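Structure first, sequence second, as always.
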């Protein structure tokens, strides 16, 4: 009930079953995950915001996990999923290596025109199309310069994407192209 712009919680005289305290109480949002120093452990916390108003909370204030809290990245199943109308079709190469103890996802990209023409010359550099799916399920594509700079004869590039402990997704930058919220 609101009286003079203040919330007053029951039980109220007219209805003793009405109360402003829900089952479980009121909790703050979970904090961002924090990596514990020298441990393979991540911690996040929350606060019971209703305890000072005689509304106790049930549940834990601290959440501890012993593996990376980010969702592991997977490979796009179809080569046409992230086609770009102006560039080549991305080719799903390998399942990324998800290093749970380091909260790092590593991709291996092969610089080759052996199977398909993935690379095109752009001056003295090669350009290829990279495709990925973001956390909303939307396919993103970008032309990335510089991969295959020494040729397209099968060189391998290792690309690391760290976990964003606030969003719970992997992301980073590849040759100036932002690739965030990878799923």
């Amino acid at each position: 009930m609101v009286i003079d712009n203040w919330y007053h919680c029951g039980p109220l005289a007219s209805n003793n079953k009405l109360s402003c305290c829900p089952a479980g109480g009121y909790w703050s949002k979970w904090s961002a995950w924090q990596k514990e120093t020298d441990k393979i452990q991540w911690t996040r916390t929350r606060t019971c915001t209703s305890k000072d108003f005689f509304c106790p909370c049930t549940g834990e204030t601290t959440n501890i996990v012993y593996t990376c809290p980010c969702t592991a990245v997977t490979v796009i199943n179809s080569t046409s999923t992230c086609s770009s109308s102006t560039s080549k079709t991305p080719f799903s190469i390998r399942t990324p290596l998800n290093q749970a103890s380091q909260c790092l996802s590593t991709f291996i990209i092969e610089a080759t025109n052996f199977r398909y023409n993935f690379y095109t010359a752009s001056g003295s550099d090669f350009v290829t199309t990279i495709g990925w799916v973001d956390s909303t399920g939307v396919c993103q594509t970008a032309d990335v310069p510089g991969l295959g700079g020494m040729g397209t004869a099968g060189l391998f590039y290792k690309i690391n994407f760290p976990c964003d402990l606030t969003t719970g997704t992997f992301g980073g930058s590849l040759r100036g192209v932002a690739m965030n919220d990878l799923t």
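Margin note: The chain has two domains: 24-66, 97-182.
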